[in-house]
Amino acid sequence: MILGFLIPPILLAGPIDIGVEKFPQLRKMIPYIQSYGTCQDTIVFLEGSQPYGSIGDYAAVLQFYTNRHTVEARCENLGVILQETQAAWLLGREEMFKACSTDATRNAYPSSIRYGQQILWSRYALSSNSQMDLTPLALPYKATADCELPKLPKSRYFK
Questions:
Q1: What's this model's pTM, rounded to 2 decimal places?
Q2: Which of 17, 39, 43, 96 has the fewest beta carbons closer than 10 A?
Q3: Distances in Å between the alpha carbon of 86 and those of 4, 70, 133?
C-alpha cells in the first residue's frame, strides 16, 4: 500500500519517460525556429498535420519553446492566413502543403527542413548551397526567455 502511494509521484517527478513522445519532429524543428528570425515572427501550423491530439496541444508547445505567435490554418484559408500574417514559418505535412498551396506560396518559402513526413518551411535561408548548419540541434530543449537562445552545452565542441 505504501509503495502504491510512493511510486507514482517518484515516476512523475523523475526523469523517466513513462509515455511515448507524441510529436518528436517538433523537438528537432524548434531549435531552428529559435535560432533564426525574431520573436515577432509567426508560425502557421497546417491543420491535420499533427500526428496525435489537437492542434491546440502543439500550438502551446510551439509558443512556449519558441516565444513566437502560432496561428492555425486549414487548407481552405491557408493562402489568406499566410498573406495576412506574413508568417516566417509554416509547419505541416508535405502532401498537405502541396495540395493546399499555390506556386506563389511555395516560392515564398525557399528553405525547408524535413523529418519523416513533417516539413518546416521557412522564409529564412537555413543553409547555403554548400553547407547545412546543424548547430541548432545541439541546443538544449528549453523555452526561450526574452528571445534569448538557450546556451549551447559546455563541451570541447562548443566553447
A1: 0.76
A2: 17
A3: 52, 12, 25
